[in-house]
Design goal:
single chain; mainly beta; Immunoglobulin-like; Mannose-Binding Protein A, Chain A; 3 domains; six-stranded mixed β-sheet; 5 helices; repeat; Hyaluronan and proteoglycan link protein 2; secreted; immunoglobulin domain
Length: 314
């Protein structure tokens, strides 16, 4: 669940309530009520991103006559306008990367603003490691962010990695705060030596120059994953899913199906990024031979090989 906490500033003109909540895929309303109306004014909604380079992330500008939406968030947003003093923002189809702080600001009149925070750390979900198809340690921080987003996730926070169930991964990966870590359940010489199990830390790294893997976080999806048996190339796997009104699944979607639906399929299948994986909820000798449940990976095979089925999502 998305949990919202709200902090109001300068309550003379804008009034808000204390919290908002919703799940991924839901619609939410971020409250902002005018206490009084100047004769000439505009209301501006922005998403606050302290590390953003360039213009601020404006979502909506409005006055008493018209409104204009901006960017990807704007395409999913509208003003509620429940009454003449209502400047609340309706935001549709919540995504994981909608997490953050949003500002409702009255401009060209009595300067005033209020802020609403949508926090994505609270929904149940799963952390998964992600590596570039070019190999180990290829992502800058910003490339890691983009890679997680492309796989239906976001970079994980430290608390999400700490809560990760059964994750034992010997490659270091970026987290949301720009630090680099890796979790170890079974200490071994090549993974930190004889230190106790836990999360190993490299600390903060240069976001533009240093390169590592990524730890991504995803939550429950609104669709479902299913397997299509066959011996497909990647392109044939794409077509097999399309014939069934679906598309090749993303890595995050497969992990969500494994984690939330206990999806278990002992067959390697193509995913949209060109990797081949399969989910195991009931470990057994003939399905990877690893005693722990998880999503197994065959890496990124030759896309023309006719060896694997397809994991589809719809």
């Amino acid at each position: 669940m998305f949990a919202g906490s709200l902090t109001q500033r300068c309550s003379t003109t804008l009034r808000t309530r204390n919290s908002v909540s919703g799940r991924r895929g839901d619609n939410v309303t971020l409250p902002c009520i005018l206490r009084s109306k100047p004769s000439h004014y505009k209301v501006k909604w922005t998403k606050l991103e302290p590390e953003r380079v360039g213009p601020e992330n404006v979502i909506m500008m409005s006055n008493s006559h018209a409104s204009k939406a901006y960017g990807e968030l704007g395409r999913r947003a509208a003003l509620r306008k429940a009454h003449a003093m209502d400047a609340s923002l309706w935001l549709g189809r919540l995504r994981l990367d909608d997490a953050g702080t949003y500002r409702c600001q009255l401009v060209n009149g009595i300067e005033d603003e209020s802020e609403v925070k949508i926090n994505s750390n609270s929904p149940p979900g799963v952390v998964f490691p992600y590596q570039s198809k070019a190999g180990r340690y290829k992502f800058t921080f910003h490339e890691a962010e983009a890679a997680c987003s492309a796989q239906d996730g976001t970079l994980a926070s430290y608390s999400q990695l700490f809560r990760g169930e059964g994750l034992d991964w010997c490659n270091a990966g970026w987290l949301l705060d720009g630090t680099v870590h890796y979790p170890i359940l079974q200490p071994r010489p090549v993974c930190g030596g004889d230190l106790l199990p836990g999360i190993r830390s490299y600390g903060p790294k240069d976001k533009d120059r240093d390169r590592f893997d990524a730890f991504c976080f995803t939550s429950q999806t609104s669709g479902s994953v299913f397997y299509v048996s066959g011996a497909f190339s990647l392109e044939q796997a794409v077509q097999a899913c399309r014939h069934r009104g679906a598309e090749l699944a993303l890595v995050g979607q497969l992990y969500a199906a494994w984690y939330f639906q206990k999806y278990d399929q002992c067959d390697g299948g193509w995913l949209r990024d060109g990797s081949v994986r399969f989910p195991i909820s009931s470990p057994r000798e003939r399905c990877g031979g690893i005693p722990e449940a998880g999503v197994r990976s065959f890496g990124f095979p030759d896309r023309t090989q006719h060896l694997y089925g397809a994991y589809c999502y719809r």
